[in-house]
Amino acid sequence: MKKSTKNIASAVADLIGPTVSELDYDLWDVEYVKEGSEYYLRITIDREEGITIDDCEKVHRAIDPLLDEADPIEDSYHLEVSSPGIERELKYDWHFDEFVGCTVEAKLYAPLNGAKSFVGALVSRTDEGVTLDQSGTAVTIPNDNIAKVQTVFDFDSIDEE
């Protein structure tokens, strides 16, 4: 029986996590997805100083032999290593914990109070939902209605020199 893509991503995270940590990077996310007829194993790494293309290459070279040896994926796939980007998706509890107080956008499956998108400062994430502060008003969005939450970068905050 074939493993689900979630199980494969979890197995890969367990396999490569220690190596990524030894290289002084955080394993931000692992995704195994099918796009068209192709499969992609996407490894997302992060660290406080940010990620360069050299960092991605370093991690790619370190984890490729581990994946070849363990062979956790039956299908052929493309291995991609990247940074989470400046506006990153928050998926796991520790992602949300790291960005409490920061501006995020929550996109919803169905409208809540007439809106399908909310932007505000992240207050918390609980078993019930994500709470945002929108100019002093707390809005809690049920987890089962959240399609995606991502950070919002304020490009106006960059000093022009």
Structural summary, described in words:
The protein has 161 residues and is α+β, with helices and mostly antiparallel strands. The protein has 2 domains: 5-82, GMP Synthetase, Chain A, domain 3; 93-154, SH3 type barrels, CATH 2.30.30.100. Helix content is 26%, strand content 39%. It contains 3 helices and 8 strands; from the N terminus they run αββαβαβββββ. It has helices spanning 5-22, 53-70, 93-98; strands spanning 26-35, 38-46, 78-82, 103-112, 115-125, 129-134, 137-142, 146-151. A hairpin with a 2-residue loop joins β4 (103-112) and β5. α1 packs across α2 (53-70). The N and C termini lie far apart (59 Å). The mean pLDDT is 93.
List strands and helices in order, with pairings.
Blueprint: H1 5-22, E1 26-35, E2 38-46, H2 53-70, E3 78-82, H3 93-98, E4 103-112, E5 115-125, E6 129-134, E7 137-142, E8 146-151
Parallel strand pairs: 2-3
Antiparallel strand pairs: 1-2, 4-5, 4-8, 5-6, 6-7
Helix pairs in contact: 1-2
